[in-house]
Amino acid sequence: MIREHVTLKDIAKKLNLSVSTVSRALSDLPIINEETKKKVLLAAKEMDYHPNLFAKFLKTKSSNTIGVVVPDLEMHFFSSCISGMQNTCLENGYNLIICQSNESLEQEKFNIKTLQDSRVDGILISLSRETNSFDHLEQLKDHQIPFVYFDRVHENGPYSQVVINDEESSFEATEYLIHKGYKKIAFLCGPKILSICKNRLMGYQNALRNHQMDFNTDWVLESDLSRASTEVCIDNYLRLNDRPDAILAINDIVAINCIRHLKKKGIKIPKEMAVMGFSNSPVSEVIEPNLTTVEQPSFDMGKLAALRLLEEIRNPNLMSQKIFTLNTKIIERDST
């Protein structure tokens, strides 16, 4: 048997009040006295009343809901970003609807359409590794739905974004390895259509150039971020006559998969080959040897992205690009 939803009219009938009085009491308006508010709130709880969000949207044109699209919820970086977003949204009376693209452009498009159909007030998005077209995001502007990029962004789009300085951070990570005495530093990249991959590769190349070190194209390989793809890249490194003595990986997951496969192949880390990652995920302290990494302020990134989106929701005139860049730091551990 399908249970009917309790309405404002049902509460009003039970308490012998007008519907408008019940509505104002539930909205905590000061024109309703405290005794009446308490009676209405108690009745609403006893009757298991839930507000009709769609009806509220029709009336106010606001759902007080924000959509979030991330490539992979299992990655600590993105779950930490979401925690920052959720804290900020709850403090400001907003809820989150969280979607996962699974690194798929088609799934990302579906997520955006679903959020749009759900009447969200705005969207926070980090792009999938396949995203090379942006029509599904551009059309949000036609529907006056603001959105903000974080971490993985479309650099040429006229929209706000919250990022780290990927080029500078990669430069510093490469320079750290150089100062540790490594002379044959490889860069294990991700899909080069992603801005973070292009910029980190640029930082790596600039650091080598700055220290008059050779750039060997055999040492720059592209993983699709999966474990299998990373293992293929490692095997390719190990087959080289002039193999690298250190690997800077695009993120911690790739770096950890490097360590696992190198150990499987009998390579001593860091004596024979050092490994460094990006993110500082919790597992980086658990893997043996512990992973040296570039710490990204993921929680703060989520908070700042949510704050910017709320600003654009409240003031549509702000819907223009503003770039927020957060600092990183190197966390030194045993893998280097």
TrEMBL record:
* HTH lacI-type domain span: 6-60
Keyword terms, alphabetized: DNA-binding, Transcription, Transcription regulation
Pfam families, per database record: LacI, Peripla_BP_1
Alphabetized Gene3D superfamilies for the sequence:
3.40.50.2300, lambda repressor-like DNA-binding domains
Judging by the UniProt lineage, the source's domain of life is Bacteria
Q: Does the keyword Transcription feature in the UniProt annotation?
A: yes
What GO MF annotations does this protein's record show? DNA-binding transcription factor activity; transcription cis-regulatory region binding
Q: Kindly provide the name given to this protein in its UniProt entry.
A: Transcriptional regulator, LacI family
